[in-house]
Amino acid sequence: MQTVVGVLRGGPSREHEVSLKSGAAILANLSEERYTARDIYIDRNGVWHDRGRATSPERILRQTDVVLIGLHGEYGEDGEVQKLLERFGVPYAGADSFGSYLAMHKIMSKARAKEEGLLTPESRFIERVEDSETVASEVVRAFHQPVVVKPVGWGSSVGVSIVGGYAPVLSAVKKLFSDGAPSVIVEEYIRGKEATVGVVEGLRGEKFYSLPPVEIIPPNGDFFNYTNKYDGTTQEIVPGNFSRVVSEELQRVTKVMHRALGLRHYSRSDFIVAPKGIYYLETNTLPGLTHESLLPKSLAAVGVSFRDFLTHLVNLALSR
Predict the structure, then answer these.
(1) Beta bridge partners of 286
(2) Helices (H), 214-305
(3) For residues 109 and 150, is the Cβ–Cβ distance under 8 A?
(4) Which residues pair with 40 in a beta bridge?
(5) Alpha helices in 116-219 (DSSP H)
(6) What pLDDT, on the 0 to 100 scale, is given for residue 179?
């Protein structure tokens, strides 16, 4: 009897459309000889659907052996759907609910990086919109301009802006709050090469297998924002143009953060390689799996097919 693999996609986040693509890529590449794929669509209101009909998560999950999560952003990467899967006892690939929450919360993940002795941009945390003016005034005095303004709990660079000066910083912060961000982080802007590195547990006999670092070169000197992540205009060089020493250090600190955040199975961490060193930015517990996404490109660079990777994830989930 074939293993029934439920593939979650969609979801009530700002990355709904990207999630649909990740889920479609998973469904298209699961081995038909080994698995029966179950396309589980979650709409923007969080309602689960099976074969086009709205239903309860419990009903679908009772008929599913294991789950691959193609969700991104809120609900998918912040630990909420993981709590649901844990409640029903369904094995799934990727970080557990607490590790997901920890990695998604940029302040907490940066704190873990500092505890591990890694460089990370200095930042200020804004929990209430009422504090926006005070913090905007402080960061203009304390940090070189421009600075990075971003929501604490969203992914794929949604809502991220690079701005300088009191009025633009304040405007960017207030816009995030008005768009529904629960909290905001204002961070030093570190100039350097953008890099990202994936890690997969148990691959090729290694407890933590680091994939080659990817060098990211956005168009026109821009940063790696939501638009150019998916429109094909960004150069993504695998392996990146880094020295052997820098590449090995990127791979090392990626494994450090995977362990420090208590993650499992796979993750991808983002960095800036600057003259002063390597700065940790954040970790993605459910990195994109679309045709344009970075993790599949890294896997291909070391000769691991996407189909074999998915089989590996299913095996990791079932061997918990």
Answers:
(1) none
(2) 226-230, 244-260, 294-301
(3) no
(4) 8, 50
(5) 132-142, 166-178
(6) 86
The reported pTM is 0.90
pLDDT one-digit tens code per residue, 155-213: 656 778 899 999 999 999 999 998 888 889 999 999 999 999 999 999 999 999 999 99
304 and 278 in a common domain: yes
Ramachandran assignment for 90, one of left (phi > 0), alpha (psi -120 to 50 degrees), beta (any other)? beta
Q: For residue 105, what are the contacts with CB-CB under 8 A and spacing of at least 6? A: 78, 152, 153
Cβ neighbours of residue 142 closer than 8 Å, sequence gap 6 or more: 122, 124
What are the distances in angstroms from CA 236 to CA 8, 210, 216, 218, 304? 27, 17, 5, 8, 18
What gap in Å lies between CA 90 and CA 16, rounded to an integer? 23
175 and 203: one domain?
A: no
**Interatomic CA distance for residues 33 and 31, integer angstroms:** 5
Amino acid symbol at 319: S
Contact 216, 238 (CB under 8 A): no
Structural domain boundaries, residue 63:
3-93
Q: What's the pLDDT at 51?
A: 86
Q: What is the mean pLDDT of residues 244-249?
A: 97
User: Domain holding 38: CATH number?
Assistant: 3.40.50.20
Is pLDDT of 117 > 60? Answer: yes
